[in-house]
């Protein structure tokens, strides 16, 4: 028989088989006995926190999270995969691992970018026993996945993404240009002047995503980070990537991973909306380093500089801005 779930008031308990159990649960078990439906008594669980198909479901916190056993199994699968002789696991092994990690996305949806490079390597492959080499991007992402599994906060099913924009705890705006990165919020403007000779050269899409990462990193450093965060960006590509959690370029995915890392560790509920460039005035002025114009239009606002969190990105991209 399929699993059955219900609820009852904590104090509404009755004795059944020598144990105090929720009244509604006992009614069901007595009914099963009356129709001779077999069941295992030790599998009839109750409590504010239950383990269901490998996930902890916490009714008090309103959250789903992985059990320690599930985490250990996933970490073991990743380590076994990465230690494959010659670092060329067969396609079938790649598929098995991605299947296992995909299961964890039920409670860790922001971990999806950690599988992007794996699927990129598997794309177009059909021979189940043919070896596929593990490249640097896949190794890095799976190492990230391993570390993330042991520190991530699960999904809050009570209010995740169910709030109205007007209920946001924090609202910010970001922008990027060929001159700088900027973000603004609640009377604060922060700006970073780009390196005039970056190596390697990156596109504006990279910079727009980077500006969002910088704002998120900034607010995550607060002593009490806001939970419901709304960010406006005039980069439609950035908004689409953050809403789908899929990036077609490795450089863009590296920033998406950094954003995901912050989300998974802090429990911030992020929402990103597109805003027309003409309405993104403050962030646009700062990203173009037009400080005099900014001060003229917004004299009461405080402007500061900031440093991007380079340490959150792979080494190859840290000098690209």
UniProtKB/TrEMBL annotation:
Coiled coil: none annotated. Transmembrane segments: none annotated. GO terms for molecular function: nucleic acid binding. InterPro entries: DNA/RNA_pol_sf (IPR043502), Hepadnavirus_pol/RT (IPR052055), RNaseH_sf (IPR036397). This is Uncharacterized protein. It comes from Dendrothele bispora (strain CBS 962.96). The lineage of its organism: Eukaryota, Fungi, Dikarya, Basidiomycota, Agaricomycotina.
């Amino acid at each position: 028989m399929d699993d059955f779930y219900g609820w009852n008031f904590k104090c509404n308990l009755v004795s059944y088989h020598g144990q105090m159990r929720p009244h509604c649960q006992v009614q069901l078990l007595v009914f099963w006995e009356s129709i001779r439906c077999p069941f295992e008594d030790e599998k009839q669980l109750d409590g504010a926190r239950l383990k269901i198909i490998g996930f902890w479901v916490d009714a008090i916190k309103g959250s789903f999270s992985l059990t320690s056993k599930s985490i250990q199994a996933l970490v073991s699968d990743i380590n076994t995969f990465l230690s494959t002789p010659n670092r060329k696991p067969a396609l079938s092994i790649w598929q098995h691992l991605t299947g296992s990690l995909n299961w964890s996305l039920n409670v860790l949806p922001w971990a999806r970018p950690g599988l992007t490079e794996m699927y990129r390597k598997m794309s177009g492959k059909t021979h189940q026993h043919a070896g596929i080499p593990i490249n640097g991007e896949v190794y890095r992402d799976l190492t990230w996945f391993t570390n993330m599994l042991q520190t991530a906060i699960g999904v809050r099913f009570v209010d995740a993404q169910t709030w109205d924009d007007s209920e946001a705890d924090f609202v910010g705006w970001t922008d990027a240009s060929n001159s700088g990165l900027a973000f603004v919020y609640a009377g604060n403007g922060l700006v970073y002047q780009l390196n005039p000779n970056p190596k390697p050269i990156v596109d504006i899409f990279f910079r727009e995503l980077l500006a969002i990462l910088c704002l998120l990193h900034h607010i995550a450093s607060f002593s009490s980070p806001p939970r419901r965060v709304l960010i406006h960006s005039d980069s439609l590509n950035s908004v689409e990537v953050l809403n789908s959690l899929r990036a077609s370029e490795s450089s863009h995915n590296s920033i998406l991973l950094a954003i995901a890392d912050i989300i998974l560790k802090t429990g911030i509920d992020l929402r990103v909306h597109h805003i027309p460039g003409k309405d993104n005035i403050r962030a646009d002025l700062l990203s173009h380093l037009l400080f005099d114009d900014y001060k003229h239009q917004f004299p009461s606002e405080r402007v500061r500089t900031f440093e991007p969190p380079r340490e959150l990105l792979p080494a190859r991209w840290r000098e690209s801005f």
